[in-house]
Amino acid sequence: MNIPRMKKVYSLLRLCLVISAFSSLSFSSVQAQIATEGQEFWFAFLPHTGATNLRIMVTSNDSTANVTISMPANGGFTDINQAVTTDKSAIIDVPTGNIASAGTGNFGFKLRSDKNVSVYLLNSKTGSLDGTVVYPHDSSQDWTRSITGNFSDYFVTTPEANSSFAVVATVDATDVILTPSGGAATTVTLNAGQTHVITGADLSGYRVQACKPVLTFAGGETLTQGCTATNHMMSQMYPFETWGTRFFTVPSGGAIINYGVKIVASTDGTTVTIDSLNNNPITLNKGQAVTIDTLTRPACFEASAPVTITQFMKGNNCNGTGGAATGDGNPAMVVLNHVQQSVDQVTFSVDTTGTSSVANRYLTIIIPDGNQNALQLNGQAIPAGSFTQYAVCTDYVHATVDISTIIPSGVFSKATLSGGNGLLAYIHGRSANDGLVYSAGYNVSKIPVSASGNPNPTCTNVTTTFNASGPNNIASYEWTFPDGSTATGTSASYTIRSTADTSFSVKATNDAGCDSTISFTITVDTIILALPEEAVVCDTLTLDAGAGFSSYTWSNGATTQTTQVTEAGTYSVIVTRNSCRATASVRVVSGTLPTSKIAISPPPATANVLGLERTAYLCVEDGETLSLTADSTNTAESVTWNTGLNTNQITVSAAGTYIATIRFSAGCVVVDSVVVQDVCEVKFLVPTAFSPNGDGTNDGLQIFGKGFFNLDFRVFNRWGELIYFSKSQENQWDGTAHGFDAPNGTYVWRAIYEDVKSPGTKIKKFGRVTLVR
């Protein structure tokens, strides 16, 4: 097989998916109500011998649309500009010389509009025609470019004889892989607007693949299901990933009863039942087609995996004998819409101008039972009694409406079907030797590439399993994880380690070698515990698990954020937040509390004096300063002063108490302090009188002053008897002597002390104090 490896990554959807519940991550695009409405369309007309009309019908719903039709690869084609009003469809004919022919040619059309429009094609000659709806290249959900539509993938369903299909390229340098059922692949390269047409006998199951968007139309000039009548057939093929599992059929309008279907499967072992006949299902493998040409009544088709079904109307000599319809009609084909492609309302084109050879036109409606009661066609009610319940799949009903009863021939070419919910609609046309059928419009229900994982929030240190799924043309999935590692397969696992682990991607590669990558993010609840592996306890150690958790469980029984320990050992904690939990442990070892004192520079003269070792002196008035060093060994991990500074050494120029917290290791902390006094010179003052009468004022003899120490203070009565003695400035004489109140009078005091700046120098002072009660 000559299949080139065509690798080109199209990154399409980037979900800064915060995925609540992380249940199912779907990367399909949002569906528009009617996927056949858009502003850019590409198409081609299939070979039709003797064709007299190549007709384009355009309908606008919003406002007047300005349409341009061009042939990008055909320089000799003159662009057609047409205004499409909202009251009727525009009928645009192009020269019949632009029918696509076998092989590679320049027969692709491009239609651009400044408003959303719907486009339908008619390819006709007298006694031979058919039509199709065209889905847009730029539909609002851009489904031709979605995850499995970066590359295009079609299986063709055609008649049995004189079949053909055309591939239309939308961008330059598009490599198209063409693989006949059971045969070898070939590759053709097309530029934008070029076509490649394959003709032959039954081409059903022919596969069309490309790594860039292409569109495919199939049909032919044929004898249909053994009928000798011939006609032209055409219909646009639906991409592989848009197939479905439940379809409904109805014979053509006007009591024509005979028709056939052709079914193509997407998956090996697909079973298909008709009207729930499970005892006799049809089994198909991927790409395999089966024709059923003996159907005469409405039926429902249900498949175990997505399939595509094309309905074929028979010719006038074998389509049944239905009264006025006897002998009328000719072969026509339409790719059916499955129930997920239903719409609530749709506006479509009908060629009622009389320029085609079709005289009778019908609208077939298929809708869930109960939803038909408010249906209207161009504002006229469609009687609910017109609908018939399906014989087996009774949840759906169907009706065929003669359009001529509502839209007179030659008056309007636009119709709106409204008031429904989940409807499918087809337009049928017939005359003695002609027949056509096409879909009125539909939504696109894609089979997306999707991923699913564990419930949100995804927790750190938890292995998350991702699962990918998609249509059957995906040959491989490759996952890329935040750490750069990769995995392949529909299922992959990854252990989330931090909040950085939120970005993932999966690349889907189809069996033609085309690939497309989705990048997405998930929400991760990261629990980070700040406990060290080892800590030292010298006295009391506080272990802190961190704030923000809903519960704490320590191995010592504590249930708070912090716990204090005094002994060596291993301590663990379990924390929870939402559905996530984490555990950590710390090994606590015993440490020796260091001996550390604040060093003062210059050192005070009283540094070695008992009681004054942690006191220093400076004269603020003279601008004196002191340098305080918390850890003279310079081995501390950190130092914190009560002034807010975190340096080991500070300079002070004011009186006060200076406290240093010195941390040598976790749990080993020394706190030391120094009192700095403002002393310029020794000041010693004793009052000349006091009144110890209990009135709260001057009740004791108090010594005032600063800059002295080693005090010896004595009081004598007038006979020289010692009646009071103190060695502390803090003490006061209360006016008693030998346990009794001393009498009023004058007393002599004597004080001996040393200067704090000149220890060893004795200073002696005398004075008198009067005691007055």
Structure commentary:
By secondary structure, this protein is mostly beta strands. 0% of the residues lie in helices and 49% in strands. Strands 3, 4, 5, 6, 7, 9 and 10 form a seven-stranded antiparallel sheet that branches. Strands 19, 20, 21, 22, 23, 24 and 25 form a seven-stranded antiparallel sheet that branches. β60 and β61 form a beta hairpin. The chain starts with 13 loop residues before the first strand and ends with a strand.
**Broad structural category:** mainly beta
Instruction: Indicate the mean pLDDT.
Output: 85
Our count of helices gives 0
Largest sheet composition: 7 strands, antiparallel
Share of helix among residues?
under 10%
Morphology call = rod-shaped
Report low-confidence residues grouped into runs of 5 or more: 1-33, 139-150
- Fraction in beta strands: over 45%
Distance linking N and C termini = 127 Å
Number of strands: 65
- Give Rg in angstroms: 49 Å
